[in-house]
Design goal:
The chain contains ten helices and ten strands. It is α/β, with parallel strands linked by helices. The strands form two sheets. The chain has a five-stranded mixed sheet with strand order 3-2-1-4-5, sandwiched between helices. Strands 8-7-6-9-10 form a five-stranded mixed sheet, with helices on both faces. A hairpin with a 4-residue loop joins strand 6 and strand 7. The longest helix has 27 residues. The protein starts with a strand and ends in a 19-residue tail after the last helix.
């Protein structure tokens, strides 16, 4: 089954052709990062406009790269939640038009489920049940994946997401947007023990995350140094921050796996591309005898191949939408 998938939840316009959830025949992403970087973060209105301008060309290229004609596509899939609602609406409207014109099924896909499904596109795809750490610019979750379409949230952020904290730390250190990759590069040159940063506890649950205090600690240290005319070693701060946030993410994931009896662990989302997170998670899984699955870096950020991978399982389970499909900015993964 060949599915043409569309993803426009934030600032990447993406389209892909995916076969049977296991093989991405194409995966095209048009990034707006450079434009949004001028403003230090994503501007929703600009994102929506650029999606409208880019989506036709991106879909055409996805079909061309996959060497597929439109009439050879069996179904259309689209991210409909969560995300920037204006951006989502561009993808949803385009996918609805394609599905209606072609007379083919329309499959609505939840963005977080899509991130998890990136792990189905690897050479050794993970199979449920497993525990997945989903960490990105807008999400920080520990999710029990009992089946391909059945999810239970064990932990989540009570304030800032992990990726958001990377971006805000990068901004105060003077790095451009998106900040995660720049923090990671700087951290390779710094001393991770140079600054003692807090490990905030979430007030909402043992496996929940709280990154607001960590981000604020970095901001305060940097601003206090500036007020005193002292120069902060940016590489050391980047390394200290990255070490701390990696330890928080990984320790809670491993603790949850032990508590809920999981031996198969996966990671997904943009923060799963971080070198420290990948290394520490690998070390801890090996230490505890857990199997670990992490997508290649190209599939960690927002892309449409992951949407197509999840769409196949949603279709098999009967999740099909009609022309009334709408976008939702905040819909939970279990809704």
């Amino acid at each position: 089954m060949k599915i043409l998938a569309i993803e426009t939840s934030c600032d990447e316009t993406a389209a892909a052709v995916v076969e049977n959830s296991r093989r991405a025949l194409s995966n095209v992403v048009a990034s707006q990062a450079e434009e949004h970087g001028k403003f230090g973060g994503v501007v929703p209105e600009i994102a929506s406009r650029r999606h409208s301008e880019n989506i036709l060309a991106v879909v055409k290229k996805a079909l061309l790269d996959a060497e597929c004609a439109l009439d050879s596509i069996d179904a259309f899939a689209v991210t409909y939640a969560p995300g920037l609602v204006g951006a989502l609406l561009v993808g949803v409207s385009f996918a609805k038009g394609l599905a209606m014109a072609a007379g083919k099924p329309l499959i609505p896909v939840h963005h977080i489920a899509g991130h998890i499904a990136a792990n189905y596109l690897t050479e050794n795809p993970i199979k449920p049940p497993f525990l997945c750490l989903v960490a990105s610019g807008g999400h920080s979750h520990i999710i029990e994946v009992s089946d391909y379409t059945s999810f239970n949230i064990i932990g989540r952020t009570s304030d800032d997401a992990a990726g958001e904290s990377f971006d805000k730390t990068a901004r105060v250190l003077g790095f451009p947007y998106p900040g995660g990759v720049h923090v990671d590069k700087a951290a390779q040159l710094g001393d991770p023990t140079a600054f003692k940063l807090p490990y905030p506890k979430s007030p909402t649950g043992e496996y929940d995350f709280s990154f607001s205090g960590l981000k604020t600690a970095v901001v305060n240290i940097v601003h206090n140094a500036e007020q005193k005319g002292v120069e902060i070693n940016k590489n050391d701060m980047a390394a200290s921050f990255q070490k701390t946030i990696s330890e928080i993410l990984v320790s809670k994931t491993i603790s949850a796996a032990k508590a809920f009896g999981f031996t198969s662990i996966a990671a997904a989302g943009g923060v799963a591309a971080n070198s420290s997170v990948r290394r520490l998670l690998s070390e801890e899984c090996e230490k505890n005898g857990f199997s670990l699955h992490i997508p290649p870096i190209t599939l960690c950020g927002d892309n449409a191949a992951m949407v197509g991978a999840q769409a196949y399982h949603d279709y098999i389970s009967g999740k099909i939408a009609d022309e009334s499909l709408n976008a939702s900015a905040t819909l939970g993964i279990n809704k």
